């Protein structure tokens, strides 16, 4: 019998979901989906598309997830109307998973937390950061509303098998360096279309020591390099996160050693220090020590990228016993209600409030210039979010810089972008040491 | 299918926030979205663009968010086709899914100038610059996607399939 040629983890998952033993890059597949996701911006159009197909039910009522997170709690009447469309659809089609307010949160933090996305699955979502779930060893990618509408109806979607780009991170992380710094560094190195249409496979000993939160951050920003998906092979850290949450069986896939890659890039992380992406593109990345004196007006710690409990813990560690600069507005946004609750229980809110931060309920809000902290003309923000396009956080003449929560918290204290070491003089902690990620 | 129109030229990495800012995403009416299309990138664009006009860009057009509101707004503003060196993948899917033809041609993206009149043959992928009298060929659209476009997008395509099943 002929042996199946070697495959990457991405290829194996796609093969398994299209009834094939073997697939290769470029092949068009009709893929079976485990989950389809929409939010208050993208789902209204998807629901319209779904209704146009003319089916009486969604493909599986447990496998269509709707989350109101972008402009919620509703920022204005049109936003409230959008949420109403989702709510009524979820009710009419008896969806098991409709989330808003009480047990809600930002979709890409919420779904892993609730165990709705698991290793080995194929997930599509009408949100570009759906690639986040690759951190769990799933194939997960963003699509538009029409694709979501079709997926809700059929449970299937055409996908082209992507080439894989292997990104190997070797060495030991420097103090205050997290997954955010690794992914910013990578985007800086390969560009915003450096992985266009490709699967970004993150591996190497530095990745193996990264806690779940940092891994989610890295996979989350694969789209910022043009990637179709980001993916990390499941290991002990993954299983520790997944096991208590999973309510259905899942499968672990790993890349074959001889699998083919479009390219392999290796990075020595001991040379990577905290990174900052300067306006107006996520690839405009510099070492924080080289950005010069950049004064800021606002700092945002949150988003699907960096609103995890670990992120809030790091920020609290730096902010503890300190006050932010008088000129700074600091907004802290826990990504989900569970993270919010846990942060409260751990006393993190005491630290944030004493530092003069404002704490927002979970929302995408300011990340995309929605609300809850939009910028005026000429203002400058440092954010732990994922995009710094022109006008992303508000006025077209405003500026967004991207960084890790550690750099953001330290910069809020100094009033200018700085290395956390400038605030916490003694030896910092290592990103990899923080465990218990949400 | 043939298209002819004026060229509106843009640069590299035009993101979906630039195409339609999130501040307008609290609703999804294509006609309303069209009023703000490219507003920050090229003020006054909506007032000047005419039905049938063609958008030209360099690499990675439509990067960033998955908002289908971006191709919808362009289409509703009258854009009949987009030619670029390359497209961000979600935008590419979205464009074809809503029946907005997207063509990839590095040479056309370089040579064709803002304001040129261009004729595009979608079946053959031929792009003819009437102003410069030059011809380019776009990468062929995969056969299966041509089916989608012929049916008017993914939803009409699926509806047709469902109807066939019923017969």
Short description:
The complex is a heterodimer of chains A (438) and B (167). Chain A contains 14 helices and 18 strands. Chain A is an alpha/beta fold and 438 residues long.
Explain what the structure shows:
The complex is a heterodimer of chains A (438) and B (167). Chain A has a 5-stranded parallel sheet with strand order 4-3-2-5-6. Chain A has 14 helices and 18 strands. Chain A has 2 domains: 1-272, Aconitase, domain 3 (2-Layer Sandwich); 275-433, Aconitase, domain 3 (2-Layer Sandwich), CATH 3.30.499.10. By secondary structure, chain A is of the alpha/beta class. Chain B has a single domain (2-140), classed as Aconitase, domain 4, CATH 3.20.19. Chain B has 8 helices and 7 strands. In chain B, strand 6 and strand 7 (134-137) form a beta hairpin. The longest helix of chain B is centred in the last third of the chain and has 13 residues, at 154-166.
